[in-house]
Design goal:
389 residues, 2 domains, homodimer, alpha/beta, two-stranded antiparallel ribbon, 6-stranded parallel sheet, Rossmann fold
């Protein structure tokens, strides 16, 4: 069991109609606010008007940057950095899902340095020592970006999709209103659920021994997604389902469940190459990869984790043989993603071609083998992609 | 489901040998440090010397207040306030269990006002708008004071033992080293376990409907205590057991599990009257009261919670009749406290007299009925005390 530092000072307003606190919270951090968002969805659900009204009635100066992409691009980050520098922005307000929040984090960091924001990424990444304060209003339960210090940015020019974490990018305040996710489509709700589960499973499937408490909390979170994602898909305005998914998405990746575990994640780096090259939805890529990765990693040395997962999350009979429980747990997870949630089950269906596997696998291992639950070489990654055909 | 605000910005260093960070952390808050502690135990385990060495080598000025009692008294708080004011203390460092940390919180708050610290308590309590910064080093897993904003202080002159919460008293940094609890006696370890479980059960047994996620996390925490408290009692230097109990104790009461639940606690106000009058260990009082309180509150309207508790925490067969599961869950909890952990099972064994029940019950309801899981009048509280004879 390794030591760890727990440090998640994000303040969260959870529930409906909490935006009356927005002006007060923004004001703590300054006068000039950059509002960032993606497409028109926040206007369609009336959120944009409410946010602008709160900012104006607090007497703050409002600047805007819209058009942040799903799988947000470095060009959007650069545009935000320019506004921050030119307008002397004090605080950034990201309204949207993980893409908008991720991009906003790197705008906030980029505003504090002279170099280009893409230099925060890659092997010789520049340090992130400061960032402008960030407030978020979440509209999609998936990435957990509202309560963590990381983000992922795509660079189409280099074909890269790279992640980076840094404590200064942690949001100061996040507003989590489950009703703001009512309009999320069945498909995006399902992809979000797969993303949340993957965040937990990347930590849960680990050969580092750590706190039983945290394993049990991860099982609690996974059970919550398994119980409520189908309800949210079926009944999009079910508050209880949306609320459970929303709070689980934050806790899945804010660092709490890690404890002292230090193993690398596996499915995320494999997936990032898929969405970097094909611009698919991240959660869908994870749903397709995860059960195959579990199958690839299953052996006598790893079977115990599958048994805990299968019995505690899916309620599989604990008296069965360990290998039988493990195989059943993979089957149950597949059924959950592809039958219950209705996600596409193969890379072929998405038009992803075998001929790109070798390149993507090499890129997934650009910094060396993926040293996660089981060590994966580029060849292993290629085999796992092939299992997804 | 009610809205809530989540705001727990405590930074935690978890694990062995993290005290090398103590000087750096204290320095953030100033130059003049008041070290507070209880009896000689921190000297016996060598912790005092380590702490003093860290403070001195960081070049900070050290002041001391020792002798803080279990069930800490207002006189200790006053003594600390006097030192803070006379010496211009910048930051308080509490080293010990919940008693030392609780008392230190009110010293930190008392140092910022002109009135007597006892005026922070009771029906006309003065506001707590500021407090000096607090750093803690925990030596006992029980109260969770290291990660929450509350504390309980006794006033023998008035016969009161009263609690108070206020966000400014939240510790800035807490050091949680499981090895510092190796020397905690079997008895105190068992009492601490009962205290942790009670903190969770006071929230879990609730008629407010809230997030399934949080119910499941509470069950995860309860299972952790049930699994590891007996190991820590049997094998005091078992790191895994001590670590699990320590991190669970913090999360049992830092506010995370509450969500939007707003019902009052029940066993704590009943117990505070026992330890106010008889100075017994808080966790022992809770262990004696809790199963009787559960028995008193069980009926057709409340039985569902007992069923979830019994099946998910103690693994009772879910196919039994609900009432049978409920009664079995009370039996299993009693066996856990009194047989497995070896705690005393009645108030009579502690010399607590029936003739004091009416007065204690009235005091427990001094602000009105206890409006918790089930509403309890002073007469109800008296009946529950009688069940503990």
């Amino acid at each position: 069991m390794n030591n760890f530092i727990y440090d998640i000072p994000v303040k969260v307003y959870f529930g409906e109609n909490q935006l009356s606190n927005l002006g007060t919270e923004l004001k703590r951090y300054g006068q000039r606010v950059l509002l960032t968002y993606g497409g028109g969805s926040i206007k369609r659900i009336g959120l944009y008007d409410k946010v602008v009204e709160e900012i104006r009635s607090a007497g703050l100066d409002l600047f805007e940057l819209s058009g942040i992409e799903p799988n947000p691009r470095i060009e959007s980050v650069r545009a935000g950095v320019d506004i921050c520098k030119q307008q002397g922005i004090d605080v950034l307000l990201a309204v949207g899902g993980g893409s908008t929040i991720d991009a906003t984090k790197f705008m906030a960091a980029g505003a504090c340095v002279e170099h280009d924001a893409w230099e925060f990424f890659g092997a010789d990444a520049k340090p992130i020592e400061r960032a402008l304060p960030i407030v978020t209003i979440l509209t999609l339960s998936a990435t957990g970006s509202e309560m963590d210090a990381g983000g992922v940015i795509s660079n189409l020019a280099t074909g890269d999709k790279l992640g980076r974490m840094a404590q200064p990018m942690l949001p100061k305040v996040s507003f989590l209103d489950p009703t703001l996710t009512y309009s999320v489509s069945k498909y995006q709700t399902a992809c979000g659920a797969a993303d949340i589960m993957s965040h937990i499973m990347e930590v849960y499937f680990n050969t580092n021994k750590d706190l039983f408490l945290l394993d049990s909390c991860m099982e609690a979170m996974l059970k919550t997604v398994v119980k409520f994602a189908p309800i949210a898909v079926r009944d999009p305005e079910n508050y209880e389902a949306r609320a459970n998914l929303m709070w689980t998405s934050s806790w899945a990746i804010n660092g709490f469940i890690n404890g002292g575990r230090r193993k690398a994640w596996s499915c995320h780096p494999m997936e990032h190459e898929l969405s970097a090259l094909y611009d698919i939805t991240h959660g869908l890529g994870l749903a397709i990869l995860t059960p195959r990765w579990m199958g690839y990693c299953l052996d006598e040395t790893t079977v115990d984790r599958y048994v805990s997962f299968g019995t505690n999350v899916f309620g599989i009979d604990a008296s069965l043989e360990p290998m039988a429980i493990a195989r059943e747990s993979i089957k149950r997870l597949s059924e959950f993603f592809f039958d219950t949630l209705g996600l596409q089950r193969t890379l072929s269906e998405l038009g992803i071609k075998r001929e790109d596997f070798a390149l993507m696998a090499r890129k997934a291992c650009r910094y060396g083998d993926i040293n996660g639950f089981k060590r994966l070489t580029a060849e292993d990654v290629e085999r796992i992609y092939e299992m997804c055909l």
